[in-house]
Amino acid sequence: MTDQVVEFLPEAAQHTLETMFFSVPDVVSAAPRRPAGDLIAATLAFHGSHHGQLGLLVSEPLARTFAANFFGCDEDSEIASGHVTGVIAELANMICGAALTRRESSGAFDLSAPRTFRLAAAEKSPEFTSGATSACCLEFPEGTLVLYLSFGTPL
Amino acid sequence: MAFEVLIVDDSEAMRKLIVRVISLSGFETGRCFEASNGQEALDILRSNWVDIVLTDVNMPVMNGEELLECVAADEMLRSIPVLVVSTDATSHRVDRMMSLGAKGYVAKPFSPETLRHRMEQLLGASND
Fold it and tell me: Which of A135, B9, B49, B70 qualifies as a cystine partner to A32, CB 3.0-4.6 A?
């Protein structure tokens, strides 16, 4: 299972970003590193054929770009903070669903509602960043998106 | 003819996106109702004319499966086409939702063209 998930997570992330956020990463790697600066974090649990959780960290400027692309706004336009976190929650939801569907198209799963929170540069990383089954790092000009997928008991 | 649409999703961001996709797709739309769960959707359906329902699956209070069951059990509502829009594209989920009465299924992430095409199919069929 682990080998397949290692493949499916970046595939699912890139497909989601290209299809609904019109964003293509410059670099994709399996070596996660915490993005610099202030971040938005999102996490959600899944249950069913397998259980676990997906977590993500995204640079704040990149999160704003994703939100602008998602809503079809000018990147310089003012997007409410709540709308940015709402878009990041939906990004986590779609990547998790796409990865699990690719992993086991005939399985069954339920996703919990994503939880988002802001993380200042000096704050310690959330627990989901350690011990992940699969992780990937997608780099864009505006910043970095890091994804962590864990199977087992949600943290 | 302007179509009345109901979008059911607990994500405000996704509802906002779907409204935008519909408005840009060329559909002549009248009102675009929004609900954040199945119960809110039923309340809207029982007091407003709606031509098509687009619903998520995983939602609090009343999920998409329960909404489909309630729509199918209601003589006044069962003819309204329901299109499921969900991150869960497993065959188990698709089969389950279609067996409960859904008329179509769109997996998230989706392109605007995919959503428009599915809606055209359902709205065209309901006009025949």
Answer: A135
